[in-house]
Write a structure and sequence with these properties.
single chain; Rossmann fold; Glutamyl-tRNA Synthetase, domain 3; Glutamyl-tRNA Synthetase, domain 2; elongated; binds glutamic acid
Amino acid sequence: MKDVRVRFAPSPTGPLHMGGVRTALFNYLLAKQNGGKMILRIEDTDQTRLVPGAEAYIKESLAWTGIKFDEGIDGKGDFGPYKQSERKDIYQKYIRELLDSGKAYYAFDTPENLEEIRKEYETKGERFMYNFATRNQMDNSLSMTSNEVEERLAKGDPYVIRFKIPENQEIAMYDLVRGEVLVNSNTLDDKVLMKSDGLPTYHLANIVDDHLMQISHVIRGEEWLPSLPLHYLLYEAFGWNKPQFAHLPLIMKPVGKGKLSKRDGAKMGFPVFPLQWQDPKTGEIYAGYKEDGYFPESFVNLLALLGWNPGTEQEIFTMDELIELFDLSRVNKSGAKFDPEKAKWFQHQHLQKKSIEELVDLFVPVLQAQLGYTIEGKAIRDYSKKVIELLKDRATFVKDFWEQGAFFFTAPTDYAPKAVKKQWKTQTSDLMQEVIELLKDIEPWEAASIKEKLSDWINTKEIGFGKVMQPLRLSLVGDLKGPDLFVILEMLGKNETLKRIESAVEKLSK
Ligand code: GLU
């Protein structure tokens, strides 16, 4: 493919939904695969919908995922400015062109007037369309002399500029995901291209910029498919070549019908945003993949498979593999159901792929934060390494090493009540005192020798194994979970082990 230039064009009207990140990702994959350029364009012409912090959030999120831009950020690129609010003059020039050629017109209809007409139509059971059939009866430049238009403009009457949709034209479009799409122009309204504030609407700005920025492929969400006929007509009105289009399937709710929303995430306990987001108006906080402990590579991997598949059984991919294998023709038409359990599975798989050393690097800061103090040196790394080795198979997130292994680092302060009730009987404290005496003499302090001595003792005493092992585990771990108990004993060391049993005896004796 020659000169692939793609863009991600978010509007900073809120946090970036994971569907938005997927759009950015698919654009990025196509660009990288073809040695092309990836462009970030901020579509902020609808000033009423801007949300403070959203633009910074979008940039941070994309940086976290590893999606990089060649243009449009940090002053890079020859096609700027890349923020639409800074391109006002450019749009003026192009709207002028459409006005002069009669392809667009001024409309002075007030919102109240339009509303009234809409209601009138509704009472007749019809839908009002501002189009070839009605435009001549409306308050617009098509039904006035140019002097009248000048007067109205000079008076400062508010207006919009509408696109004059041609009558009864079959618009044959091609979408790389959906193939041929056919729409008759009579189903379209004369869309507003520019508002009274002199700023273009999305449609005009989007077309002009895609053209000027020499975009080769427009890859975006399915929600923009209904705009495609209008965009086709705009390209034709300007006499410009069109880019290729690909509309990506929606990401659907895990259960029920419809698009995955932030409410679903909040309700079911999974993130729909890359990073945590606090709504500046309501103060509400929405979870983020990053803060929930996902690796960026897991997030990218799970997004890639929402609506795309490689045609093989392979499910785990690095970014480089995705760049190599991605293919727009393997993007599905139908919505991709989001499965939060599968999302976790991807994270689990990517954690398994990490080396122990990498995991130690990631875990030590978590550990420090949990303990509330800093531990320097090799000993803590070596110790953490052993903990991670023991817990890795079953861990999904780095935080799991703490959640499942805190007892390796701090003595339990309380004991799971159910386990206590079941395992700590009246005679248990005495039994544990005996265990203390026995353990005191064990040398060397290694899992194998501890196991041997303890097992022999249990056998000669002719008591059940569980009667000793369960309360012992409870004393060391605070619960009945955790890896092999003899390994835990060895890791804790003799002193700590004895201290923990003594403390349990003291606290749990009845
Ligand atoms: N600004 C639009 C959005 O927020 C971009 C749509 C497009 O890519 O054309 O999704």
